[in-house]
Structure formats: structure tokens, C-alpha cells
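Ligand-bound model needed. pyridoxal-5'-phosphate.
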Amino acid sequence: MPKRDLSPATLAAQALAWPDPQHHGLVPSIHPSASYARAPDGSYPGGHSYSRDQNPTFDAPEALLAALEGGTKALLFASGMAAATTIFETLPPRAHVLVPRHMYWTIRGWLQALHDRGAIELEAYDNDDADHLASLLRKDHTALVWVETPSNPLGKLTDIETTVGLAHHAGAKVVADGTTATPVLCQPLSLGVDIVMHSATKQLNGHADVLAGALVTANPDDPMWQAIEHERGYRGAVLGPFEAWLLLRGMRTLFLRVPAACRGANRVAQMLVAHAGVDEVYYPGLPDHPGHDIARRQMRYGFGSMLSFRPAGGEARARAVMNRLNVFRDATSLGGLESLVEHRARIEGQRSPLPADLLRLSIGIEDSDDLIADLEQALSI
Ligand SMILES: *Cc1c(COP(=O)(O)O)cnc(C)c1O
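Prediction:
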């Protein structure tokens, strides 16, 4: 069977059956060398010169991620932030950038700082309002539209196809932060997005033991992508070979872990919605979530492993509930094997658009009965 016909789950499980012509190992090797020897004519017989540009250990995880996203080229970075910030380094001075009102807080904060010092012109659109986005787009002027769906932490949905149609008509590029959906649940490139960005620290690696980021494209000849490739080599915000290898190992179980975590998240969301001690639950898998219909259209297998809720009784009770949880650990991040809880307003601070009593959950792969029992005992106060 030709490789291209295999399903993404098979490609991931086999790590593309990456060839090892020397030892025929089933698992790709780690290449620690920072530099590579030249031939007498000055060429590089192994195709590599220096690990700031490209390390052979990146090849398999980059190729696998590109395949899972339905793209042709991926680049690994030292973190999701390193991947995201590299994109903006390639924009012209004072570029007009549109971002969703609700998005990953640290990217938003960094872009705000760029705006404050006049490097870009930043405006925010309502995640789920295409008319609002259309009113902010400036034809042949807006450089980039950022999409994050479902958004972290409110799970707001953005219709990717509609957004791409509007943005491309105005001459703007579209980048989608695909971290919360993963390529298992959604493939933004197939909906027309120019570049997909990932915090691979989250579910792609999935074991909370690697910090990594990635960008993926279906069009590597695009001048913006070429500029990004050069920029990565200049900045040197690349992964170490061992981390790249660990990331590949993590990605091999993606198609087991993501659906399992989605099932757990869905059960937890159902339990919280029915609980008298809970005011509000934010999970796109719930039929009355405002983004549920879009989520059904552009996602498959599940609605993600992240959800948020507001316990009744305000911020003090929310913190008390969080502190009574025993199975959930109070820690930042998402997409690991273990379930986490976080009081987001405390870490986002003054400019956060979130309710002060919001608790975010990242659901791992534990038995969901244990997670539900833990939440029930914590909410019993
Ligand atoms: C964590 C996260 C990032 C940043 O990635 P790092 O690997 O922590 O730098 C970006 N976007 C989303 C949605 C995230 O959850």
C-alpha cells in the first residue's frame, strides 16, 4: 500500500516508518552533532551544515507533523512562543494584524507589547463574529489574521473557512494556532489556512516533558514561509536533538491519547453542567455552547481536552474548590497525561478578559470516574 494512502493514525503509530539505512532500526536515531564536515569541494555530503539551521533528528518529527496536518513542510522550534514570534519577525514594519479577542494569553501580551512600541498595529476581533472581523479588515493593507480555535481557555470557536475567505479577499495571510485542536481533531490547512502553529509542548508531545513549537505549511514556496525558514536559522530558537526525538516518541501515541482525553473532557463537562454548585461550563462539545455547530462542522473525533467552568459563589469559592481537588493538580499547561486545574485570572492579571472565578481544566488520560469523583467532593463545600 503506498504510504500516502495510509491513515494519519497509522503514520503516527509507525513514525512514518522512518528509514534507517545503516542499522535498520525501527526507531530513528538521535544526532547530537552541532556541526557537519565539508567535502574538499566545500559541499556538505550529508546535506547538513550546522544544527542551528537543521538537525537530522528534526527530519522525522517535522515530516510526521506535516503529514498529519495535510501539509508539505513543518519546522520545529524551541517552544510554541518561539514558533509564534518568528512569524511576526517576517512582517513589514507597522503591519496591521488582527487577532481574536480570546486567545492564548502570552502571545496576546507579546503582540500588545509590539503594538505599544509601534512595531505592529494590533486590533482584536470577536472570535465567533465574522461580520466583526470583516469590519476590521483593510483591503490590501491587513497583513495577517490570527485564528485560535477552540480558544484557550473559553473554547470559543472560529469558522476557519469563512475567516480564510474574508482574509484572503483582503490580501491578508491566515495563521491558525492549532494547539488545542491538534491535527487529530482539525486540519486548518485543508480549510485554506496559510500556516498552522503549534505549541508541541501540549498534546503533540503529550507527556509534559518537552517544551517545543512548530509551524506547518502546504505551500513552502510562499515568500513568507521562506522568510520564516531563514528567520529560524538566524534566531536559533531550535529544539535540542534529544527533545526532538522525545517529541517524535510522544506523537506516535497521539491518536490514542487525544480521543481518550476528549472522552474524559466530555464526561467531565456533562457532570459539571448538571451540578447545582456550578454556574457556567465552557466546552464546545456541549450542545448549547455557542460554537457547537461550527465545532461539529470543522472538528472530528471530539471537542478537545480543555474546558473551563465557574463554580457558583464567586472567586473565593472557586479558589476553595480548586484547593480541595486531589486528583487534579494545580499547574499551568495543557495536554499532558495528567489532569490539571488552573485559576486563570490569577496568572493573567489585570488585562485578562476572563471572569475572576474561572477555573480551567486540562483533562488527561486517567479514568474519568476518578476525575468526576474528585470534582464532586471538591464542589461539595
Ligand atoms: C501553550 C500555548 C502556546 C505557547 O506554547 P509554549 O510551548 O508554552 O511556548 C501557544 N498557544 C496555545 C493555545 C497554548 O496553549
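Residues 17 and 26 are 7 Å apart (CA to CA).
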